[in-house]
Protein: isochorismate synthase
Amino acid sequence: MSVATPLLDRHPCSLDNSSVLHGYLLGQQRGLAPGQRCLWSFTENLGKIDPLAVFGALNVQDQVHFYGENPQRGETILAFGICQSLRISGKYRFRLAQQFAEDCFQRLVPIGNAQGRSQRPYIFCGFSFFDRSSNRNPFANSFLFLPQIQVVKTSQHCLLSWQVSLDSNTDIIDLVDFIGAMLSAIRRVQPARDNHTAPMLARAPRLTAIEVAKLSTAIASSLEEIAQQRLSKVVLATALDLDYGCRFNTAHCLQRLRQQYGDCHLFSWGNGQGDCFVGASPERLLSLHNQQLVTDALAGSAPRAADVQGDRQLGQQLLHNPKELREHQAVLDYLLQRLRALGLSPQASSLKLLKLANIQHLWTQIQAPLPPHIHPLALVEQLHPTPAVAGVPVAIAEDLIRRHETFDRNLYAAPLGWLDSEGNSEFIVGIRSALLSRNRARLYAGAGIVAGSDPLKEVAEIELKLQTLWRSLI
Ligand SMILES: C=C(O[C@H]1C=CC=C(C(=O)O)[C@@H]1O)C(=O)O
Structure:
């Protein structure tokens, strides 16, 4: 898939030079027909700035934002402010989202900086787990935005892109002043300090006896349905609400997640009203670069041990445990089948262990070349929700989830990510996550239930997964 990008306007127009920028935008505005709106994307080099330090210094947590760290690609992304956005729900949400993205990319004119660099702007997407859910949720069912400001840091550089939407009514003086002030604030940002280490809650949170009883009942009833062969797998989750006694600082949370789970995909998704959905997800729904697709089958879990030998033993037991292997195989089979249904030829790597700070998983990586006519969002639609977070068959598992879970998943286990105009895309699955609202945190975790699952062990696994976030929150 490649969307036709308008001819690159090679005019290097520095955002730092207000009078040149003002003259340039004014000239462009004069050329607009009445009612016409144009989109430009300007690129600037930021040198060695850490996007997380920008997040903290500019208090991005209260704005609509996406923050993501990708350990495989060594890439950190911060995007905030809205240039264009779309809010949708229902079963056609992925197709409507695709139209929105194509329309934005078609209209967007990229303008490089003085060094001839231009950073492609991304469209950021947050799709809730279910295609319809209550309006009371803090996050829209499906929300896409082309950010006003995007900062992308790789090992080579840190580039900022500023998206400007212009019509004949835009006040260019105000706009240029705002850009100048923001840019100098960003350039002044100092590196973040890494000393936010003290958790306020001394003891790990536990589920209450009532919550454990509810979860055990749901697991037992799922096992009955599995025994009756209505389904072969379901992933049941719980939400744990905690009051931390003071307002969260999302940048500090991300800082600690970075220290503890640097090998995971860190993320924060903000709704602009003070709610942030944050996490350290080990699971990639898709990574798509230069028409090469990578996706992860990740399911089957065991704790880590403090000593090397004990840990290796737990890993070996996990690799040979028939119940854990069944859980994993359900995800692998589903992903391969869904990709083949799109006409792809996926290749699965050998089964491996993915060892994270507090837990280890069974992991198989799947790769496939992707023909250009398949849009990244068509892939998201095809793959979500995988049996790592829903079950097999999907519709029956979803029905069971709705009947047994007492909270709305909203963004938990949902696809979050971005796409660009060249068909590149990254989506993670929003697990090992928490919803932060003022001083309250809702932590989420789930576990796959298959024939042979032991309700007590599944509850213990969920409690272990809940630990991922609570330590990093304050
Ligand atoms: C649903 C979650 O994890 C999934 C991903 C990896 C391993 C899983 C498992 O072993 O059950 C789950 O399928 C969660 O962390 O909330």
Remarks:
- The first helix runs from residue 18 to 30.
- The chain has a mean pLDDT of 92.
